[in-house]
Every structure is written in structure tokens, then in C-alpha cells.
Amino acid sequence: MLRPLSPDTIRPPFARYAHGVEVPAGARLVVCSGQLGIGPDDVAPDSAEAQAALCFANLDAVLAEGGMGRADVVRINAYVTDRTHMTGYMAARDAWLSAVPDHLPASTLMIVSGFTRPEFKVEIELIAAQMP
């Protein structure tokens, strides 16, 4: 069982995430590469929220291929190209996590200077763990 770690001795998280997640020994891991907000048609929507939703849909597909789902996610690393994209990313993340209300992964959000194509605004990677 994955155990969220949010000590009472430090400030609570700023949003829907845990400060840490304990992964028990013997767990099976899936490590996902960063997914960009682009569909199979090679089109990236304009808004950061729509791109983030596509990133999470792509991550759902990778998790499913590994026999896992959202409840198995222990860490999310997200990157946006501007502070103005944070709100859209966080809305998509919170909507994605609403399917697992009792499980909050550890999470980091960073602002970066850009990605491989100028239309990309969001990239998300994650780690998932599951007991065999």
C-alpha cells in the first residue's frame, strides 16, 4: 500500500499533492517519460489546460500499458513555459486526480524556457508503483 507523507511539522502542500509518498519494498514501478500536450493527429491545442489534459490522457495510456492506473501514481513532475500556464495545468491535474480522491501523489511544478516545438506549453512525467 502506498502511504502519503505530509508531516504536521511543516507547511501543508500548496495544492492537491502530498509532500511525499512511501513505496513499500517489492513494489513494481512504472516510470513514464515526459508527455507533451499533443494528440495522435500531431496537433497541440492552444491552451495550457487542454495540453495538460492531453498529457494526462497520454500518461493514462502508458500506465494502462503497464497494468497500472492513476491510483498507483506516486510522483508527478510537470513543466510549463510560463507562470500564466500554471492555472491551466493545475486545473487539468486536479480534474485528473479527482478520479482518485483518497490518493495524492508527490508533485513538483517547474517553469522552463521551452520545449522542442514552440507551441508546446506543458510537459508532464510521472512515476507509479504497485504491489505485485
TrEMBL record:
Q: Which InterPro entries match?
A: RutC-like_sf, YjgF/YER057c/UK114
PANTHER family cross-referenced by the UniProt entry = BLR7761 PROTEIN, YJGH FAMILY PROTEIN
Top-level taxon: Bacteria
For this protein's source organism, the top of the classification is: Bacteria, Pseudomonadati, Pseudomonadota, Alphaproteobacteria, Rhodobacterales
| Name listed for the protein in its UniProt record | Endoribonuclease L-PSP
